[in-house]
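G., the chain you wanted modeled:
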Amino acid sequence: MALKGLDIFKLTPKTNCKDCGSPTCMAFAMKVAQGAVPLEKCPHLSDAAKEKLSEATAPPMRTIQFGAGENEHALGGETVMMRHEKTFVNKCLYAVEISDAMDAGEISDLLSKTKAVDYERIGEHMYVEIISVHHDPAKSASDYVSAVKLAAEAGRCILLDCTDLAAAKAALEVCKDTKPILDGADAGNAEEMNAIAKEAGAVLGVRGASIDEIYDTVVKLEGLGNKNLMLDVTASSLKETFARAVRLRRAAIKGGDRACGYPAIVNTAKLAPGDSVTQSALAALFTARYGSIIVMGGMSYAQALPLYGLRQNLFTDPQKPMKVTPGIYAINGADENSVCAVTVDFALTYFVVSGEIDRSKVPCNLLITDAGGYSVLTAWAAGKLSASSIAKFFQEMDIAGKIKNRTLIIPGKVAVLKGEIEEKLPGWKVVVGPNEAVQLVRFLKDYQ
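Predicted structure as tokens:
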């Protein structure tokens, strides 16, 4: 059970040195108990106190890391059931499944289509993070190794979906440097799979015929000293798979049972084989409840756009607005003689507005002011977007010294600011733009 603030306070130095950033040790202890600051903020905690506190204050879901280099990822670490309670910590990841039952041409074609899904949305790189390699029992270990080698060439993390000991060991020999996930431990092979995974430094996935069997296998593996685990909750039916995902998360978060507190793997390709539409629907379901790695039979742009949008919405902190850095953004080759347009730093506003300006092909300097991450009307209502704030931004960024053009387009929804801005920025011609970003293309072309 998690410690309370007073329990944590008893283990602090009680010197009130403020080195942690809090005014007193009691204040620090209360923040740690709430999960607001990590233990490491106090440089004076004894090793014994750290050891005792680290386990008690750790998130109910263990954080599991896998992958190497730029493909390193973290899953788990969650502290709430619902995003609005606080925030989700580590976003779920999507995987595309290949199999050693496919020929090399099929695998290469599928991997090529997978790599084509690669774009940026609101500053986040969107792509398929994992290649899952399924071992067909009818195939040999060498067939499986060949498929794994092709997957490794894609430059993504690898998930080995394999319960065969010989095939798993052979596959790890060729991909262990990528720090893969070996999803293949069950009640019958737990000890052997554990030895193989630990030797290769791989995360071990645990599966079972029932949720109780998964739990018992996890307890057994933890007894063998392995807590670098994931739980494959995929069952023979959607109903059972969903029940496993929710029950395990609830047992970890609400019940404090750390044996249930591991990231979950859900394979939609097994739940709806050959049905890409149903797989997409299931991927959306388990993005929200509670898949950590979601495996699909393929990924196209049509599938990716709504899925990644949903994931991005769920895994952003609801208490922190999504912002872009204030500054001058030259679009379509804009220079010092190009017209200027100003808007707020709310990320969605920036990407919509910049996209429409780009589509117009008109050179334009987009000026992004600090508005606290609010939308245009919200920022204006809150006093974050005003003639004074725009004038301050112009002064801080030395806009007049960097741009010779003296035309400034403002959002149509704050047309009321036109006169005040002209007073604050003498010499500038303030033009009221359209109300909606989609109207910018025609507006800029006509204005030009």
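The chain has three domains: 5-57, 64-314, 327-447.

Shout if anything looks off.
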